[in-house]
Amino acid sequence: MGRFKGILGVLFCAVVYAGAGGLFVVDNQPPRILDLYPPQDTVVALPHFSFGVDAADYESGIWLDYDQSLGMWGAAECGFIPATYITWSVNNRGFSDTVYGALSAEADFPPDAVVDVCVHIVDRILNYRCSCCPNYTDTCWTFYVMRYEMCSRQPNPFTPNGDGVNDYCQFVFPGLGVRDATIKIYDVRNVLVRTLEVARGRKAKEDSRWDGRDNAGNPVPQGVYPYVIESEGEILCDGTVTVSR
Q1: What total of structural domains would you count in the chain?
Q2: Is 1 within a domain?
Q3: Of the residues 128, 145, 162, which one is the last residue of a structural domain?
Q4: Cys-Cys link to 117, which of 88, 138, 195, 207 (CB 3.0-4.6 A)?
Q5: Burial level of 35, CB count in 10 A (0-12/13-18/19+)?
Q6: Cβ neighbours of 194 (radius 10 Å)
Q7: Strand blocks (E) in 22-146
């Protein structure tokens, strides 16, 4: 299947379907996307979870019976794969997994995965004598799977002298990239010397690096520096890091 681009709603012909009491109603609107989960550009930490869309078609409903629609619309020569399906790929390797007749799926993903998801959502047709092609909507989005980290700081000691070797200390903590956090670094007199604000997202790991400078941008003396990593009122990690010069 070729890769969809962006969010596209395509209207073919008005679809006639059987309503209550045997009346016939015209549905000329494609299905609506109500929500995506995880949302576009979300960073998730769990390796196994559900993903998909919330969608609705208030006139005729959404057609999930893929096999039934395949036979019905094959004769109508609609020019596209009928019914509803969700498909996804990992790390831009081309779409490799598809679940037909579904608005959601579950999968295990490796750490640092970039997941591209597309859904194809089709009107549900109840009048089998209608030869008109259904309305459909194609939607694609991307989310990211972060590596679940334990508390650590590397290297220790580190040597921020500008030689390009061990010039910064990398802090990691549970939920790195998924939750906002603050790293507070103190001297041995318990005076705060540096605060690192780490926002959730793909830059979180870069923002969790200490270059051996205080909040004014001055190099700190060599020595041992206690640190605390906090998030949402919770202390995630604490310990010490050593600066050598």
Answers
A1: 2
A2: no
A3: 145
A4: 88
A5: exposed
A6: 20
A7: 24-27, 32-37, 43-44, 48-56, 85-90, 97-100, 104-108, 113-122, 136-145
Give the domain extent around 182: 152-243
Same domain, 136 and 216: no
Q: Which of 92, 116, 145 is the last residue of a domain?
A: 145
CA distance 88 to 90: 7
**201 falls within a domain:** yes
- Stated pTM of the model: 0.59
Q: How far apart are CA 13 and CA 72, in angstroms?
A: 16
First to last CA, the chain: 57
Which pLDDT tens digits describe the chain residue by residue (245 residues)? Answer: 433 333 233 333 444 454 555 555 677 788 999 999 999 988 887 778 899 999 999 878 898 988 887 777 665 667 677 789 999 999 878 899 999 999 999 999 887 788 999 999 998 765 545 556 778 899 999 998 877 678 999 999 999 999 999 999 999 998 888 789 999 999 999 999 999 999 987 788 899 999 999 999 999 999 999 999 999 899 999 999 999 98
Q: Residue 46: inside a domain, yes or no? A: yes
